[in-house]
Sequence to fold (256 residues):
Amino acid sequence: MTKHENGTVTYSVNDNVGVIEFYHPKGNSLPGTLLRELASTIEAAGKDEASRVLVLKSSGEGAFCAGASFDELTAINNLDEGKEFFMGFALVINAMRTCPKIIVSRVHGKTVGGGIGLIAASDFCIALDSASIKLSELSLGIGPFVVGPAVGRKLGVSAFSTLALDAKTWFSAEWALNHGLYNKLTGSVEELDAEVSRLSADLAASNPEALQNMKEIFWQATGHWGATLEQRAEISGKLVLSDYTKETIEKFKAGN
Fold:
């Protein structure tokens, strides 16, 4: 895979396992164009008869996902641009939700903000035991509105509110496991890859019809999410225009 400064999304299939891998040089952050490419790749992979199960992963040895692109956030000048940006996360979550195939996420490093939404929207997550998480949106003046339905569905209201309100705290991988975001922890990258390979191979060898039925059951009662996530994108798009949020993000960028 050629890694470009604007990021990349690739899709490959081996032994009925489809692997979707995203990359961005700034901590695997997700600018709007990359979010839309990721969403369209997931939709296409869901229709690809060559794969029976999908693995979602990111590149490198650093962060799994640094969330939204701060450069794009500070460049938003009106409500339409704000909604358009946050709809990128909505499109990815909805693509994962409606994908007929089980999605296994491989989390090798820390995850911030919107990246937690991707993990929560997967059906099974295997993570490194150092892969801590932080839902940082409120500390920036926004709030985790778009990813909220996915995170709340996976963790429950109490754990979601803990992450959302204690927005400056890193929560351990053990915490994420105990509260249902992660399904399994591994002690090394080698073990992580082995577990992802084992589970995805087992799933690929299972009855595709049974897997699809299970996927539908997992996501029952979420048919309204298309409209809900669009409304949430509007909320975030409005908040990102506030002086408070713009000043806070600029201070954060200056200090990092």
